[in-house]
């Protein structure tokens, strides 16, 4: 297993199969690439299935045990089932999607080898959903969630980006997941450093505090040091802390009865999050990057021969740097500035 200079093992890869999408979400940073979406036709430099599989056949050699397929919207790839089927069996396979294409395809994806799915759902009513996603696909997303559940992709994790327009729906989303055992919820902090509109950001610590008050158990996940809260539905007579003196236990194993899981992803200005990152990313055109927030560390895999893949992967792991706390450091006024050590770092190839 490869480890960077900061002791972080790389155990997973996140592969963006396309930057095309049938939504136009106002918060989208397109896997850190910015708003590069354009025509719905594939770009000439978009990796084909052979490109993706060549890469995935190599990474298990370095101890990587999971891959998450993302986009854009990965289900715009007509060859997605082929890519999943050809992914090496050593890798756990998951996908992030807006869910609109899951009806009619979820069962085939499961048969091909898909094991888990994240579905974006940012609100519990069609009007707000349409305003956030610039689409009228609210009902299609709900149908996609049902299709995933029916295909056996349980638990289905719902992704909600928490910012000014969606924060009011957090309690309703939490109750929805707590009342439905097949669902989990991932609350994702809005990232103004990638998308602009800093005025849309809310204090994610308030979300943590509110969840902690309702939690019947709290645990910490190794990936990014994320916090998970186990919460009972609001109408559950036992919807209160199971711990002594009102303190939630640290393990969900201590919970007596059903509870829903809510996980918070809070990367903004968070050195602890970055210090516990174990992923390498691949852009739709086959560039490796060690950090969502950076574009100056990209390494092209070119024609993706095996030797090029190995060399590019080793290099990107060797040059990985935690974004907050290392690449970005506190200035004298308490703000963030680029660490001088990385000002002259190599640019994208």
Question: What order do the helices and strands follow?
Answer: EHEHEHEHHEHEHHEEEHEEEHEE
Number of strands: 14
CATH architecture descriptor name? Alpha-Beta Barrel
- The CATH superfamily is Aldolase class I
The CATH C-level name is Alpha Beta
Low-confidence stretches: none
Cα(first) to Cα(last) distance is: 25 Å
The structure class reads alpha/beta
Largest sheet: 12 strands, mixed
> Can you count the helices?
10
The shape, in one word, is globular
Q: Helix share of residues?
A: 10-25%
What's the average pLDDT?
89
Work out the radius of gyration: 20 Å
The domain count comes to 1
Beta-sheet strand percentage? Answer: 15-25%
CATH topology, by name, is: TIM Barrel
Gist of the model:
The protein is of the alpha/beta class. The chain has helices at residues 49-58, 80-86, 106-112, 126-133, 138-150, 170-178, 192-195, 204-214, 271-275, 306-318; strands at 12-16, 66-70, 92-97, 116-120, 156-162, 183-189, 217-221, 226-231, 260-265, 279-282, 287-289, 299-300, 328-330, 336-338.
Structural summary, described in words:
- With 349 residues, this protein is of the alpha/beta class.
- It has a single domain, classed as TIM Barrel (Alpha-Beta Barrel), CATH 3.20.20.70.
- 25% of the residues lie in helices and 19% in strands.
- It is built from 10 helices and 14 strands.
- Strand 13 and strand 14 form a beta hairpin.
- The longest helix has 13 residues, at 138-150.
- The chain is globular.
């Amino acid at each position: 297993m490869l480890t960077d200079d900061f002791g972080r093992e790389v155990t997973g890869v996140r592969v963006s199969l396309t930057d095309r999408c049938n939504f136009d979400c106002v918060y989208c940073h397109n896997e850190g690439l910015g708003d590069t979406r354009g025509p719905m036709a594939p770009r000439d430099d978009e990796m084909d299935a052979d490109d993706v599989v060549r890469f995935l056949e190599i990474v298990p050699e370095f101890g990587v045990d999971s891959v998450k397929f993302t986009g854009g919207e990965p289900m715009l790839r007509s060859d997605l089932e082929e890519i999943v089927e050809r992914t090496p069996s050593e890798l756990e396979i998951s996908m992030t999607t807006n869910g609109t294409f899951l009806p009619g395809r979820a069962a085939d994806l499961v048969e091909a080898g898909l094991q888990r799915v994240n579905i974006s759902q940012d609100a519990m009513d069609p009007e707000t959903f349409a305003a956030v996603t610039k689409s009228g696909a609210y009902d299609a997303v709900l149908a996609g969630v049902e299709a995933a559940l029916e295909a056996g992709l349980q638990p289905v994790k719902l992704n909600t980006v928490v910012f000014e327009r969606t924060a009011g729906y957090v309690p309703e989303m939490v109750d929805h997941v707590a009342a439905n055992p097949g669902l989990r919820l991932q609350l994702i902090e809005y990232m103004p450093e990638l998308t602009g509109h800093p005025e849309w950001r809310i204090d994610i610590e308030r979300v943590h505090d509110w969840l902690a008050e309702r939690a019947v158990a709290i645990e910490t996940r190794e990936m990014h040091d994320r916090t998970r809260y186990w919460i009972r539905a609001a109408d559950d007579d036992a919807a209160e802390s199971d711990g002594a003196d009102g303190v939630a236990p640290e393990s969900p194993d201590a919970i007596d009865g059903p509870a829903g899981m809510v996980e918070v992803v809070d990367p903004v200005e968070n050195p602890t999050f970055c210090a516990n990152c174990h992923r390498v990313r691949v852009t739709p055109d086959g560039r490796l990057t060690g950090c969502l927030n950076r574009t100056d560390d990209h390494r092209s895999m070119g024609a993706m021969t095996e030797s090029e893949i190995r060399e590019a992967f080793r290099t990107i792991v060797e040059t990985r740097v935690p974004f907050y706390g290392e690449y970005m450091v506190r200035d004298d006024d308490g703000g963030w500035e680029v660490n001088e050590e990385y000002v002259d770092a190599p640019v994208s190839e």
